[in-house]
Amino acid sequence: MMLEPSIDKLLNNINSKYTLVTLSARRARQMQDTKKYLIDDYESEKYVGIALEEINEGKLYYSNDSY
């Protein structure tokens, strides 16, 4: 069974597996509360999967602008 999007594709957008997991989990909780999505056409049935699809399409990203 192949998961989509693949971890390799996702790591092109988010360079840390820890950040990827944290960001997708937070976004999944947000979607569960608001029922609002950043993409219209998604394949996953679960919130974490939809969050990963949003990251893959560049709609959800992490910026480390701490300065």
Layout of helices and strands:
Layout lengths: L6 H7 L3 H18 L12 H10 L11
Subunit structure: The RNAP catalytic core consists of 2 alpha, 1 beta, 1 beta' and 1 omega subunit. When a sigma factor is associated with the core the holoenzyme is formed, which can initiate transcription.
EC number: 2.7.7.6
Protein name: DNA-directed RNA polymerase subunit omega
Give a short synopsis of this structure.
The chain has 67 residues and is mainly α. Helices cover 52% and strands 0% of the residues. It has helices at residues 7-13, 17-34, 47-56.
Helix/strand class: mainly alpha
Radius of gyration: 12 Å
How many helix segments?
3
How many structural units, i.e. domains?
1
Overall shape: it is globular
Return the average pLDDT rounded to an integer.
91
Spans of at least 5 consecutive residues with low confidence? none
Whole-Å distance between the termini?
42 Å
Count of DSSP strands: 0
Sheet bearing the most strands, described? none
Summarize the amount of helix as a percent range: 40-55%
* Element-level helix/strand string: HHH
Strand content: under 5%
GO molecular function: DNA binding; DNA-directed RNA polymerase activity
Keywords: DNA-directed RNA polymerase, Nucleotidyltransferase, Transcription, Transferase
Catalytic activity: RNA(n) + a ribonucleoside 5'-triphosphate = RNA(n+1) + diphosphate
Organism: Pontibacillus yanchengensis Y32
